[in-house]
Design brief:
With 164 residues, this protein is an alpha+beta fold. Helix content is 30%, strand content 38%. It has four helices and seven strands; from the N terminus they run αβαββββββαα. Strands 1-7-6-5-4-3-2 form a seven-stranded antiparallel beta sheet, with helices on both faces. It is globular and about 40 Å long. The protein starts with a helix and ends in a 5-residue tail after the last helix.
Length: 164
């Protein structure tokens, strides 16, 4: 993979008016390290992100994502972690050739000994055609609302103490 070229492709696809930008956050009553560790195990994400069918670890930095689309369709893409600071941030982007062009980050900021602000930033650009329409309905109903609901479910799951 030509990383410089594929990063430019992602940047170009998400730049200007082409990309949709979303930022949402929630404060959760758990220590930062615990939340980071749970999220970093990407296979946990479908437990609170309803649109995800699965996230499969390929390597430590590559993962394969499957999401539910409308009418029983499935949208798939491969994502790469491009920035990681343990207990602080996980940044990712879809790799070249994926059905979905996206990039984003999740930040973990301690706001007290047992309080953590989890902030998700997401940029995405649905591809054209049938897959693009499916993704637009999947995420685009209102991407901010989707992420806000995901974070609310994450908070409930974690604060309830269900197998972290």
């Amino acid at each position: 993979i030509n990383t410089a070229r594929s990063k430019d492709d992602t940047r170009r696809a998400l730049g200007g008016s082409a990309g949709v930008n979303v930022e949402e956050s929630v404060v959760i009553g758990r220590p930062v390290e615990e939340l980071y560790r749970f999220w970093r195990n990407l296979e946990n994400l479908p437990r609170f992100m309803r649109h995800l069918e699965s996230v499969e670890r390929i390597t430590d930095t590559l993962s394969r994502w499957r999401a539910h689309g409308p009418g029983g369709t499935i949208v798939e893409w491969t994502a790469e972690i491009i920035n990681e600071v343990p207990s602080k941030v996980i940044g990712w982007r879809s790799i070249e050739g994926s059905e979905v062009v996206s990039a984003g980050s999740v930040n973990f900021d301690s706001v007290g000994p047992t309080q953590t602000r989890v902030r998700v930033r997401l940029q995405y650009s649905p591809p054209g055609g049938k897959v693009g329409a499916a993704l637009a309905r999947l995420v685009g109903r209102d991407a901010a609302t989707e992420i806000r609901e995901d974070l609310r479910r994450f908070k409930q799951l974690i604060e309830a103490g269900k197998q972290v």
